[in-house]
Amino acid sequence: MKEFRKRHPLTKVSGKKPLLSALLNTYKQFGGRRKPKIGILEFRPTFSTTTSEYELFRDFFRKEGCEAEIVSPEQLEFRNGVLRRADYEINLIYRRVSVQEFLQRFDLSHPLVQAYRAGAVCMANSFRSELAHKKAMFALLTNEALTRNFPRRNERLSPITYRGRGW
User: Are residues 51 and 76 in the same domain?
Assistant: First the structure.
């Protein structure tokens, strides 16, 4: 790295400001008109002596004037149209819990799902966004034995044709 730095200027790039900006823009697009109360959704660590990245984000969000708390799915409740952890009302969720982990522990009647369905909370990285994180999906999409059955670009197949081709 020292040799590389001799030939190329390097700068440190922080991800905290762009992340907060993206969260705030998402909340604004959701319809939020005031500063959000952010819930950083993470499972409680069983044991940790170090500061987690989520604590660093929480502290940064607070420093930038946003209320923020780390919350665990077990702590959430949805009542009177508000998602909350005890007295802390949440209107923006920064989800760090994977869908798979979530569904292993909870079902679709969970307060977070209820609040999301009701439009009572903005989930910046919704459950639908997880597909891009699944390596197994990329493995499937690069398997020629499967993709040869996909329609070619600009080719339209009827549902009957899809069934006939193994869909």
Answer: yes
